[in-house]
Automatic annotation (TrEMBL):
It is found in: Cytoplasm. PROSITE patterns: S4. Coiled coil: none annotated. It comes from Aurantiacibacter spongiae. This is Tyrosine--tRNA ligase. The lineage of its organism: Bacteria, Pseudomonadati, Pseudomonadota, Alphaproteobacteria, Sphingomonadales. Catalyzes the attachment of tyrosine to tRNA(Tyr) in a two-step reaction: tyrosine is first activated by ATP to form Tyr-AMP and then transferred to the acceptor end of tRNA(Tyr). L-tyrosine binds at residues 39, 176, 180.
């Protein structure tokens, strides 16, 4: 849309969240005249979400900031099955207790980013096990089954990809899209939910839910997806050479979380500031226009702002202080040894030798085996681990408490 009547659509467009909308004009008009409850689902497969889920969480924050009601749906029911979208193999099934523990851990981040309560725009967190757990199989087949065709379900990317690769897709997983569609209908009944949002890989599931609501109860529902989020180098958001970037402190120390954002590729700074911070757009425009070494100030601000939102003021201040102590020159590592990482990558053992931390590959292997080597704070278990970085991207390599160096993409 060239112009938006509602603050919701205007903000989502301005900050780069919009990929597809089912009926943008209709949603825009609705959001301009009333509170729109909208939801995103999260499967509690771990005690913390990682950075790859942060764009979805921020979408719920934008929903609330523009006067609407966020609904956080924990997939306690669907999580027992597993979403085949983007997966090459079946997900391990979880017990009720594991799911409950994971939900409790995940809630911590949402409580920082959303305001929960009983007001018309206050966020609510629900678990779809509340209704899916009591849903009888015969009832589901009778009431919901007639509104789906196997022909149509086979056309969805999440299903077709697995079948094209001749990888198993269990009947259990095949039913995931039906249950997610039923979630949308149930949320519409319970909370007058009108909007489902998600990543671009959820488009088919979202449309299914809209169509089910229309066919069963004549409901007018909407869907909106975000673009697939990758870094400028093409890497999947939320993954680094050292592993997943977890949102919770228990899974990843605040300093390492801060450092992940400080290591952002120059080309991603403006986009990430719009998506992951509340900074005004004109200020972001000024920051992303910085060039050369000055762009590091924008990266530091990005790290400060995201860490403050996700971990809190104290964690952000502590992480920044640690960075300044570890890296001379305001956290840039100007006084630390640097080893360039060629496009084909550099193995950790070779990097230790290149930085002068060890005299030989054999010594490097011993240090790794002793647990003395870390990449951005995460222990390295294999001296042969290949580090790949985009141009100008940096990552910290440490051996023990006193030896720190920078690996920089060539």
């Amino acid at each position: 849309m060239t112009t938006c009547e509602s603050d919701l659509l205007r903000v989502l467009h301005e900050r780069g969240y919009v990929h597809q909308v089912t009926d943008e004009a209709g949603l825009d008009a609705l959001a301009a005249r009333q509170v729109v409850p909208g939801y995103i689902g999260f499967d509690p497969t771990a005690p913390s979400l990682h950075v790859g889920s942060l764009v979805q969480i921020m979408m719920l924050r934008r929903l609330q900031q523009t006067g609407h009601r966020p609904i956080v749906v924990m997939g306690g029911g669907t999580g027992m099955i597993g979403d085949p979208s983007g997966k090459d193999e079946s997900r391990q099934l979880m017990t009720d207790q594991v799911i409950a523990d994971n939900v409790a851990g995940i809630r911590k981040v949402f409580e920082r980013l959303l305001a929960f309560g009983d007001g018309p725009t206050d966020a609510v967190m629900v678990n779809n096990a509340e209704w899916l757990g009591d849903l009888g199989y015969i009832e589901l087949l009778r009431d919901v089954g007639p509104h789906f065709t196997v022909n149509r379900m086979l056309t969805f990317d999440s299903v077709r990809t697995r079948l094209d690769r001749e990888q198993p897709l269990t009947f259990l997983e095949f039913n995931y899209m039906i249950l997610q569609a039923y979630d949308f209908l149930e949320l519409a009944r319970r909370y007058e939910c009108r909007l489902q949002m998600g990543g671009s890989d959820q488009w088919g599931n979202i449309v299914n839910g809209m169509e089910l609501g229309r066919r069963m109860e004549g409901r007018d529902l909407y869907g909106l997806t975000t673009p697939l989020l990758t870094t400028a180098s093409g890497a999947k958001m939320g993954k680094t050479a050292a592993g997943a970037v977890w949102l919770n402190e228990e899974q990843l120390p605040a300093y390492d979380f801060w450092q992940f954002w400080r290591n952002t590729d120059d080309r991603d700074v403006g986009r990430f500031l719009r998506l992951f911070t509340d900074l005004p757009l004109d200020e972001i425009g000024r920051l992303e226009a910085l060039e050369g070494s000055e762009i590091n100030a924008a990266k530091t601000l990005l790290a400060d702002e995201v860490t403050r939102l996700v971990r809190g003021e104290e964690a952000a201040a502590s992480a920044r202080a640690t960075a300044e102590q570890t890296f001379a020159g305001g956290g840039r590592g100007e006084d630390l040894p640097v080893a360039e990482v060629p496009p084909e990558g550099l193995r950790v053992g070779a990097a230790l030798v290149a930085l002068g931390f060890t005299a030989s590959n054999g010594e490097a292997k011993r240090k790794v085996a002793e647990g003395a080597v870390k990449l951005d704070g995460a222990s390295v278990a294999d001296a042969g681990h290949l580090v790949t970085l985009s141009a100008s991207q940096e990552i910290r390599l440490s051996m023990g408490k006193k030896k720190h160096g920078i690996l920089r993409g060539a």
